Amino acid sequence: MPPWKAITPRASGLIMVFSSAILWSTAGIFVRQLDMNTWAMVAWRSLFAFLSLGLLLAVCGNLRHFSFRRDLGLPGLITAAVMASSMFCYVAALKLTSVAGVMTVYATIPFFAMGLGWLMLREKITKRALLAAMVSLSGVILMATSAVGPGDIQGNLLALTMTAGFAASIVMSGKWTEMNLPAVTALACALCGAFCFIMMPRGLPLPGLRDMGWLLVFALATQSLSYLLFMVGSRYVASAEASLIAQVDIVLGPFWVWLFVSELPTRYTLLGGSITFIAVTLYLASEYYLKRKIQKSG
Question: How confident is the model at residue 278 (pLDDT cuts 50, 70, 90)?
């Protein structure tokens, strides 16, 4: 038997989630390398992501049997719209404030998903989860209060919107499992790109060859592939497990921009980020340990 056929669905899910976290963490590098306004950057990134996902759907034969009602429908439209807003807010936040600040807010995504899961699916919230959420929130507040300018404040608010949107799309993918996730992600990219194109006051500028190359890799690494890998992979692993692996992104994001563009966060951002990261990681690790213990005893 070939080695890849021996991989279980859970192992495949873990690999996909881990890969998506690494890809997602590189976004700060691309944003710092591209000297473009937010509207143009997101528009081109979304266009390339849409084309790459469309090509993937065509190669896999999905387009031959594609049905808007079956593969998307109203749930797909809603999820795509939420994902599109999250895609835009992520890049906009990175343009306005530090990568470490954005990652600190993004680290709270398990608690956003938990709250939305309670609202949409009536999933139970434990006291331990509430305590961890409060501690992680204190880290975000500490980081946010150290904002030195309007750009930091706006960036933090956009990061908060992005985190809520991404958490909502995760909950929706679990609630509406019949959705075709590559098609939903492609539609989200199309909506995001169309919105940015409309908002451009003088039309969409044509980037140079260097910027075009950066935008293409930016789209593949952080929009089409990363979203798709996480959304598909999270279906095969426990939500706590997927969220724990995704914390790799929180650490690597600031590390890449420090390594490649010498961007250093403020002391309060580091302190707040550390509090949030530790609170989230300990909570997710305890959730994973308890679930494994219950599975073994059962």
Answer: confident
157-200 tens-digit pLDDT: 999 999 999 888 888 887 888 888 888 888 999 999 999 988 88
**Which residue reads 């608010």 in tokens?**
157
Beta-carbon count within 10 A of 119 CB: 11
Measured CA to CA, the distance from residue 43 to residue 209 in angstroms comes to 16
SS3 content of the chain, % helix, strand, coil (to 5): 80, 0, 20
DSSP letter string over 110-137? HHHHHHHHHHHH-----HHHHHHHHHHH
Residue among 152, 202, 160, 211 at smallest CA distance from 31: 211
Angle at 172 between CA 22 and CA 46, to 5 degrees: 50
CA distance linking residue 192 with residue 47, whole number of Å = 9
Q: Which pLDDT band, with edges at 50, 70 and 90, does 31 fall under? A: very high
**How wide is the angle at C-alpha 294 spanned by C-alphas 292 and 298, nearest 5°?**
120
